[in-house]
Design brief:
The chain contains eleven helices and 14 strands. With 514 residues, the chain is an alpha+beta fold. The strands form four sheets. It has a five-stranded antiparallel beta sheet. Strands 9-11-12-14-13 form a five-stranded mixed beta sheet. A two-stranded antiparallel ribbon has the order 1-2. It starts with a helix and ends in an 8-residue tail after the last helix.
Length: 514
């Protein structure tokens, strides 16, 4: 039965591990969604940055070109046609005005015919043959030509933006052309474009980060039901096959939970049928085993043949062991969650129960040469707990019976009940040989025996663990120094009903009243 429950739990865990993001090391569904939701935002951000930079460059060019055009018009006015010649009126003040730029250096040149230097501070390249971009000006003004070039400034070659105006002068019969060029380096344009880009990209980046945070919160909120489903399964006891409840989960998670519930229901029915078979078989075996044991006892009394008596003693011993196994199986069946949930719960005194069990088992202890007693040195007041008194009594009987069986002749067995905070604690201590510490984690499993001596069947401690866990308690074994063993049961006190109810709900059971 336990193997079926553990296999069911492993299957459910495997199904949940198939979900991306549930198990470390696998592809995360949260990261996958986050990536595919943030990747378009990143692409849009890069595209917006590129478009913004191009627009910034365009408008920076427009601003610089207008400035260059104004400078070239001002320079052209300093050269005036006079008859068949040119009069250059270029005082120091005008030169300072044209060349003065707080952020950049201005290069200019006037030539007539184009290319024949008249005045200027640098030799500028001629306009290209292909018509470059131009910006419309008033109809009575000459249209400038704007193009990119470079000049040599010291040891470096400087990239510049040039505005050129071609003016006509001279007599009609001998027309002349004058080329006026003004240039500035492209540093200003790039600086202006960069500033525009930064001023635009900063709020855009903040907006993208805000959207990313909202996306992350949305994904985390949307995937929260998956984490709830995982916790609902992983936090269960191995034998808890109750349906999974996810009332507020979205439709997709409900479908998964419904599939798991259907599987849990099928396994639950299978486990119940097996438990019913074991219980029925145990009930059917009790009567013939009791008859066999009685007949063996009668035969031993009436027979004097030593060889036959030895065989009858082995038959009686086998019958006693089988009867004990059947009794343990029936007790285990009653301790299962489905059976324990329909049994009544009531408030009772754990100390008094321990006293009754100890008194009941004293004859058996004396027969085995064991000194069995109840330690009443502590406060003898009531230690009230809530639960099924019959099952808890069976758990205490199993612990004391194990101590009597395996402590060895001459050992002492002490039963002690104490209150520890909000817990009731029952200890069964013996001064026997104890068990191998390496076997402590295994002795609570079914059909596991720590020793081959005695007539036990390996179910006593498994029954105790099942019963105690059904009552939201804990059971443990501790090695005593210098030798011996301490079995401890801890149960919630009845004085803390809220704590008890919460603990029972955590264990997957609803408290019942007798």
């Amino acid at each position: 039965m336990a193997s079926h429950c553990q296999a069911m739990r492993a299957l459910v865990s495997h199904l949940l591990q198939r979900l991306p993001g549930i198990t470390p090391g696998r592809r995360s569904l949260r990261r996958h969604l986050l990536l595919w939701l943030l990747l378009p935002q990143l692409v849009l951000w890069l595209a917006a940055a590129l478009v913004t930079y191009n627009v910034a460059v365009r408008y920076a060019d427009l601003a610089i070109d207008r400035n260059l055009y104004q400078s070239s018009r001002a320079l052209a006015r300093q050269v005036k046609p006079v008859g068949s010649g040119l009069f250059v009126d270029f005082p120091r003040a005008a030169k300072d005005i044209i060349e003065t730029d707080p952020d950049d250096r201005v290069y200019y040149m006037v030539s007539s015919p184009p290319g024949a230097f008249i005045l200027g501070n640098y030799q500028l390249p001629a306009p290209p043959d292909a018509p470059p971009d131009s910006h419309p000006e008033p109809a009575d003004a000459d249209k400038p030509v704007f193009y990119d070039g470079s000049v040599t400034a010291g040891p470096d070659r400087v990239a510049v933006r040039i505005a050129a105006i071609t003016l006509n002068w001279g007599e009609p019969e001998a027309p002349q052309k004058m080329l006026v060029q003004v240039a500035k380096s492209r540093v200003n344009r790039e600086t202006l474009a960069r500033r525009i880009l930064i001023d635009t990209a900063f709020p855009l980046t903040l907006l993208v980060l805000l959207m990313s945070a909202l996306v992350w919160v949305g994904i985390r909120t949307g995937l929260a039901p998956l984490a709830g489903l995982r916790d609902a399964v992983s936090g269960r006891a191995p034998n808890d096959l109750a349906p999974i409840e996810l009332a507020s989960a979205p439709e997709e998670v409900h479908a998964l939970a419904a599939a798991l519930n259907a599987l849990l229901g099928a396994v639950h029915e299978n486990v119940i049928s097996q438990r019913r078979f074991i219980s029925d078989a145990a009930h059917q075996l009790r009567t013939p085993l009791a008859g066999l044991k009685s007949q063996a006892e009668l035969a031993l009394k009436e027979n004097t043949d030593q060889a036959l008596r030895a065989r009858l003693e082995r038959v009686q011993e086998s019958a006693t062991r089988s009867a004990h196994l059947v009794t343990q199986l029936l007790t285990l069946a009653r301790a299962e969650p489905e059976s324990a949930s329909v049994l009544g719960r009531s408030r009772f005194d754990l100390r008094r129960m321990a006293h009754e069990v100890t008194a009941e088992l004293v004859p058996r202890a004396l027969k085995a040469g064991i000194d069995l007693g109840l330690d009443e040195a502590e406060d003898s007041g009531e230690v009230a707990v809530v639960g099924n008194a019959l099952l808890l009594r069976e758990a205490v009987v199993n612990l004391v019976d194990n101590a009597i069986r395996y402590a060895g002749s001459g050992a002492e067995v002490t039963v002690r009940v104490q209150i520890d905070g909000t817990q009731a604690r029952l200890d069964v201590e013996d001064s026997g040989v104890g068990i191998d510490p390496q076997l402590l984690p295994q002795v609570f499993e079914r059909f596991v025996r720590a020793t081959h001596s005695g007539t036990g069947c390996g179910l006593g401690l498994a029954i105790v663990k099942e019963i105690v866990e059904r009552h939201a308690g804990q059971v443990s074994l501790q090695i005593r120094v210098p030798h011996g063993l301490r079995a401890r049961i801890e149960l919630p006190l009845a004085a803390a009903p809220l704590l008890l109810d919460a603990a029972l709900r955590t264990a997957g059971h609803t408290p019942h009243q007798a």
